[in-house]
Amino acid sequence: MHRLLLSWKTNGRDWTVFFLSLLLAFSIWLIHNLSLNYSDFLTVQMTARCDNIEGHTVTSANVCKVVARCRTSGYNIIKSSLALNRAPVQVNFDRQSLTRKSGEIFYITRRELNESAHILYGEKVEVEYFLSDTLFFRFPAETHKKVPVFPVVSLGFAPQYMSQNGLEIEPDSVTVYGEPYHLDHVDRVFTEAFKLQNLSTSTAGVARIERTKGVRLSESEVHYSINVTRYVEIEKEISITAVNVPPDKEMMIYPSRAAVIFKCVFPLISDVGDAVFQIDYEDYIVSRSRKCIPYPGFLPDGVLDYEIIPEIFECVLTEK
What is the pLDDT along the chain (320 residues), one digit of tens a residue? Predict the structure, then answer.
């Protein structure tokens, strides 16, 4: 016994070589066996999609398990067993492949499964037979409506630059599809937030539309554009006039003149002194405070915006 133990005496390097050799031999054996083909039952989760079932969603609401006897390598068998917790495989079917059972329920047979075997299991898997004869899918009934798109944008301009019409988007509305109880809560959609800062030239781009849970959209993005122009500020004193006053009445406005700061395109193309600001008698009638805000009756070409000081004017109505 003592002699046997002495014969096993080796240094640390010999033991390292021994275990590495053992590990290499095991690895070669494992790789060889996993590369061989075996027959086994493989399970895949799937959903169905059909783009032309009128009045129904394009994707099934339920998930079905597909079990088939397959012949493939050991690698694929292990891979399939690990994939059970992953997202279901979506298979596209044309309308002719789906048979309506009743209402929202449609089904496919083993024939359609055989045609989709390469999608479900991959090209390197040979399906011997399916355990499932028929799979049922529910395509919920859906309606649709048109809603506006609201851009979520932060705009900033370089000094002495602005936009007259603001940001324009195309399309400015989209059609949303979904089950009625989902659509009841959707009256608008929004773009993803984006920034346009320090603008001094016109610009355009694309913004994606935020997805809304439970519905699908006719468009996934919008095109935006904004015209930017340079402006100059000109201040003028303008008279405030009353309009639509009955013939037997007279409306006095205090103060009768206002300072107006015009923002005009550069270079100037017209005289801002021709601008007309007025207060309508009808606005005075509906005003509880008898104070009104004038509005422009005429603005010369090239006026982008204006600021009037003061903003509110007191009106007094008298009989003639």
Answer: 445 444 555 555 655 655 666 666 555 555 545 455 667 788 888 999 998 888 888 889 899 998 888 887 767 666 666 555 677 889 999 988 899 998 899 999 988 888 888 888 877 777 888 888 889 999 988 888 999 999 999 999 999 999 878 899 999 999 998 888 888 889 999 999 999 999 999 999 999 999 988 888 989 999 999 999 999 999 999 999 999 999 888 999 999 999 999 999 888 888 888 899 999 999 999 888 889 999 999 999 889 899 999 999 999 988 87
- Quickly list DSSP for 200-243: -S-EEEEEEBPP-TTEEES-SEEEEEE--EEEEEEEEEEEEEEE
What is the arrangement of strands in the sheet containing 168-170, beginning at the earlier edge strand? 168-170, 221-226, 203-208
This prediction has a pTM of 0.63
The type of residue at 202 is S
Q: At 52, is the secondary structure helix, strand, or coil?
A: coil
Three-state secondary-structure class, residue 314: strand
Domains of the chain: 34-138 (no CATH), 154-227 (2.170.120), 231-319 (2.170.120.30)
Give the strand pairing for 143-150 and 189-190: parallel
| Three-class secondary structure of residue 168 per DSSP | strand
Q: What angle do CA 208, 210, 214 make, to 5 degrees?
A: 135
- 50 with 96: CB under 8 angstroms? no
Contact 292, 270 (CB under 8 A): no
